[in-house]
Amino acid sequence: MRQKRSYGRVLVVSTLVGCLEVVLTIVVVLLYVQTQPPPDEPPDWVTIGGSLVATMPLVGSIAFLLSLVFVVPAVALADLIVRGLGGHDPGGRAACWAAVAAPPAVAALLAAPVLVYATHNDTETGSTLVFWASATASLSLGAVIALPRGEGLLRRVALWGTAAVVGTAVFGALGLAVGLLPAYEPPRIGPQTMTGTWIDETRGTLVFTADGRVQASGVGVHRHGDRPGEPFRRCSGSGTWFYEPGHDVWSQRVRVEIPVCHWQSWHVDGTEEEPRISQEVGDPGSGLLYKLRKASDRTSRGT
Fold first, then answer.
1. Predicted confidence (pLDDT) per residue in 34-80, tens digit
2. Which residues face 292 on adjacent strands?
3. Using N-to-C axis directions, what is the helix angle for 125-146 and 72-84, rounded to 10°?
4. Per residue in 27-36, is it b (16+ CB within 10 Å) or e — as a string?
5. Nearest-CA neighbor of 81 among 93, 106, 98, 65?
6. Are 136 and 18 in contact (CB under 8 A)?
7. Of 21, 160, 172, 242, which sees the most CB atoms within 10 A?
8. What is the pLDDT of residue 228?
């Protein structure tokens, strides 16, 4: 005799799955960040961590609501189909397919109103569709995991879900440490890369020429205590530049010597496709950066 279905347990299991999926997504995003160039301002990990902890009750509430609206009906539909088959469902295939298909079916019915809402609020349609599809896949997974009957399901989901999150974090960190995952490194540039126009966010420019000359126009000069976005002195003038390759990509520097502009050596970051040079802003070790990027030919003509 089949054990009676507890839809309350289905709701709790699906909510737990939703929360674990959010935590796993956060871990994956944090690993991905380690493969990207540093931002202009370093992240405040204490504040970010506190915010994530503070939002977990909200995440749980949303997961509970979505499970109530999508997952519980999906499992109920699966049970209804099995009863329609006279209880004959070898291996639970029909129930599983019904649980998987129900959330996408409901999501498809709601897709049009969601797109209308996104368009009305000037939200990018592509991003909205990706989010909607991801949420639907997440709900389908929750329905499948919550489908089995029997004791101990909640404990097993909590145990294996936690193991998946911790395992992803540990193996991701090991992958970054041993080079299996591509941890971020600055691009290896050279004198040929430096030649051309480099611009900041306000169209201040450094123009490097192949003969070692450089022309500055409205480029920022920062002092201790300055922060990105705050007013700072701008410098214009002409002088010379030198590229120092260093012993690795992290130690390469670009020295710009202009009598009226006093800069430390510029660091190199960005990517191969969009190299950048940067100056540290504020106190040493602050992690705050003032950056110039290599301009494209079209950008250079418009500057």
1. 888 877 777 777 888 888 889 999 999 988 988 888 788 877 777 77
2. 277
3. 50
4. beeebeeeee
5. 98
6. no
7. 21
8. 57
pLDDT tens digits for 171-223? Answer: 999 999 888 888 888 999 889 999 999 998 888 899 999 999 999 999 988 77
Total number of residues shown for the chain:
303
Chain segment 270-280, per-residue pLDDT in tens: 988 899 999 88
Cα–Cα distance, 37 to 148 (Å, whole number) = 44
Name the average pLDDT for the chain.
Answer: 81
Tokens of 81: 């189909």
